[in-house]
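Sharing a chain and its predicted structure for anyone who wants a worked example. Both blocks are below, sequence first, tokens second.
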Amino acid sequence: MAFVSGFSVVARRRPVKISSCRSQKALSRNGRRSTVKMTDEFQDLADQLAQEMGGFSPPPEIVPGVNGMEYVLMNHEESRQSVRVYKFGATLQSWTQNKREVFFTSKEAVFNGKKAIRAGIPICFPQFGPYGDLPAHGFARITEWEVIALEVLEDGSVYTELKISNETESDLIKSWSGDKKWEAVYAVTLNASGLETALRVTNNGSEPIEFTAALHNYINCSNVDKVRMYGLDNSKYMDRLDGDKLKDEPDDMGTGVAITEETDRIYTDRENEVVVFDSAKLHIVTIKKTPTMSDTTLWNPFGSDGCDPGWKNFVCVEPAVVSTPAVVAPGETWTGAQLLALDI
């Protein structure tokens, strides 16, 4: 499936309901339904062959995770991808392809339903960092989200939606919302193109809504000194370690941007894709994003005081809307999305 400005899934969602009942009509690989009623033995054999050949995928399911916290398990059989999305924070904690983990999970990650899960893709909304009156990075990553869709689409994509709104039980949400009426839906899609995540914010009230946001990707790496980022040069960035001063990122002459010290930057007006290359693992993560997320953040604490002890094994590259906040008019919906692909 091609990535079309983050609206590819939204525009053509038509669920294919798959039952575990043996008499259910089978979904063939070309998307058509068989009218043959299969015996239990034949169905078992068909399921086994489909899995071995990369056939149809099972629908997502909610299962218990660490400390009993529930997550959505998504498997795309054809591309051998798997994802875990915790309901708490709608945190996409793990993404594997051919059993290779793409995201970092901190050994200090806390799964208690109170503290943000330091792993995968925490959602920063409706505030990025300290830029506002809320706690750092807002309330989305520390709120229990409601699962509203668990589907397999007609093209074989595996699809999940989670939602929060001004009506979600949370003191922080009530305080920020005031008279605002809104809902935020987080859509996660797995297909042959990779992993797509999309945040959709709808204004159901009568006044504009303003916010900042980011999809906080923790990319797993062998060692941060073996990683290079391509697509960030010839641009400007806000240096968060130097009072948000605007600085230049010069032409990297094809060598990529390296992290050699504590780094916390917001690259502004960067609508192009970013490629993260790990020379030790010999794998490439490509991050494409919608123009609505015009910024890209780059972060690694590089051993600074109080930082995560696993700092050598991750780099955060995040599609974001920070330097110019998003504004959603009454009755309108804002969508910020990314498509990640792993090349190994």
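Comments welcome. The chain is about 5% helix and 40% strand.
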